[in-house]
Amino acid sequence: MPELLYLTQPIEELERQAQEKSLRFKPPGLTAAQTVWDRELGPFQSIVNMSYILSGTSISGLLGQIRTKLVDVIADLTVTTPLTELPRREDVDAALHQRVGHLGDVYTTTVVHPSGPTAIGSGATASAGLNVSDILPLLDAVRAAAQTTDTDTTDVEAAVTALHEVISKPDPETGEIVKRAGKLREVADKLGIAAVSSATSAAVSALTDLAMNGAFG
Questions:
Q1: How many CB atoms are closer than 10 A to CB 202?
Q2: Is 188 within 8 Å of 149 (Cβ atoms)?
Q3: Which of 134, 139, 145, 156 has the fewest Cβ atoms within 10 Å of its own Cβ atom?
Q4: Which tens digits make up the pLDDT trace of 118-164?
Q5: Looking at the domain assignment, is residue 13 inside a domain?
Q6: Closest Cα to residue 132, out of 104, 88, 99, 167?
């Protein structure tokens, strides 16, 4: 029997499964094991079913790791490359190798228009209609969620403060914002409190969307 259970479903399906209390998986290898074991049993004995059972929170943790890795990769790629330009293939390879590990051949696709007009400053608005100033209440929600727990949330609150300071600058840098957003996601996931993780996910997702739409310098 393999020691690893591979989840090859789309992210959308994993997000749906994360809402379930428990999940059952029955890979082909387990079906074969059931058949072999069934043959070894005595009369009037049989195995009705065999499956792996995972909690939905396990999938939530997996999705949190994926988001953190993606934010880290984006931060690495935007440190030296403006959003109006495509990163070099060697930069993409290096970021993926460092943050994700070897994934085989990586192909870079060139597009005609990598991004639209870039808006800079605290009054910038992304194409989705979300304004930079809308992010600040989301960060306040993360801080409020952290302060309602009995657990030590110093790291989370410090990450919120650092991100708040960067966003509030006249000309915030995309690379710095994405990097600090990744740090906030990391410490929130490490804390493991659902309310804090949920508030952090909302703030970081909105912030990443703004960054990818050129809302920062």
A1: 15
A2: no
A3: 134
A4: 333 333 333 345 567 777 888 888 888 888 888 888 999 999 999 98
A5: no
A6: 167
23 has which bridge partners?
54
The domain tally of the chain equals: 1
What confidence tens digit (pLDDT) does each residue in 27-47 have? Answer: 766 777 777 788 888 888 888
- CB within 8 Å of 64: residues ≥ 6 apart: 185, 189, 197, 201
In a domain, 156, yes or no: yes
197: confidence class by pLDDT, cuts 50, 70, 90: confident
Residue 73 lies in a domain: yes
SS3 of residue 106 by DSSP:
coil
Residue 153 lies in a domain: yes
Tokens of 34: 């059931």
Over residues 65-84, the mean pLDDT reads 72
Structure tokens at 66: 């994926």
Residue 205's identity, in one-letter code, is S
Backbone phi, psi, residue 163, to 5°: -70, -40
Q: Can you say whether the dihedral through the CA atoms of 21, 27, 30, 32 is positive or negative?
A: positive
DSSP per residue, 51-83: -EEEEHHHHHHHHHHHHHHHHHHHHHHHTTS-T
0.85 exceeded by pTM = no
Give the separation between CA 31 and CA 52, rounded to whole angstroms: 11
Region 193-211 average pLDDT: 79
* Sequence-ordered strand ranges (E) for the chain: 22-25, 52-55
Q: What is the mean pLDDT of the chain?
A: 73
